[in-house]
Amino acid sequence: MLMNKNAIEGKVIFLTGAGSGIGRATALKLSKLGARLALSDLNIESCRETAKQCAGGPHQVTLLNVSEYKRCIETIKDAIGYFGRIDHVFNCAGINPTARDLVDCSEDYFDKLVAVNLKGVYNVTKATIPYLRSGSAIVNVSSICGIHPHKQMAIYCATKYAIIGFSKSMALELGPKGIRVNVVAPGYIETPTNASVVAGEEALKKTVEQVALGRMGKAGEVADVVAFLMGDESRYMNGSVVEVNGELRSRAKKGRSQHGFTGREQYTKVLLCFSVIVQNIHFVSIWFSVNNNPVLGCGCHNSKEAYQNLEGSLMNRRKVQTAQLIPASQMRKETSTPALPTFSLSLLISISSH
């Protein structure tokens, strides 16, 4: 990923959760690119250690509990007083849960996860908006758990799903002002907060087996994406969710239509899958369902021209049918269908469940 250092050099960036893991790695990355950093964390000593490891400077270090809105306002004002402005924001503060059934989750446990993971993003974003201007960027940290569910992590998943919804809404709200809001969604990354999740050799092995690249990610690899989302190279990205997960095998086996995509994006992926599967068949029958409720179907000839007219066909022909989707890779193995389609399909459609 090429970075224009001049796009970050001299920028003032406010970071939460800077004491360890992805937060620290991002601070180190941005400092190497010449940024001046307002570093905050609930663990002030760890945050100071991050500042020591950062290049350039000066950098500011502040104790911050992101769940306290008044404290967020004070911290932002301190950063403004120290640097004179804030250009970008990185909301990285968060806590990981221990896997447990919902019936074993106390109200205090729920409140803590929501207060830090979700309200913290709200607090810092709201407190910084008055000081941001055209060209500013906000990057929020979600998770693979914010894209598809994980067993015994209902509350954590809820907070990470919510961050994506919050960020996309803020992208619409702030976009007209020239302020971009994007999300990075890390997978299994080697960080202190994930240490308990993959504790033990067997747990690590099972985790790695889920990743197509065959390893856990590095915090620095997420930091590279964050820096990109703050730079000029991503100037037309707004409301985007960038997954950094090495690609999860478990999702591929189940079919992407079940995880990771909603609304128009989901059906675009489905159509792409079918364009690969059925390229050597003369007539295609395509069916869609929403939450297992059949809503719409369409048939068309398997040609570039027919697919270009597919949007009109879909909107005019609504049949109550459904079908099980099979991953393209599986279908290719069973039918010896070539791996690449004969044409490219890029068609966005909206589907009504009425």
Automatic annotation (TrEMBL):
GO terms for molecular function: oxidoreductase activity. The keyword Oxidoreductase applies. Keywords: NADP, Oxidoreductase. Pfam families: adh_short_C2. The keyword Methyltransferase does not apply. Belongs to the short-chain dehydrogenases/reductases (SDR) family. This is NAD(P)-binding protein. It comes from Aureobasidium pullulans.
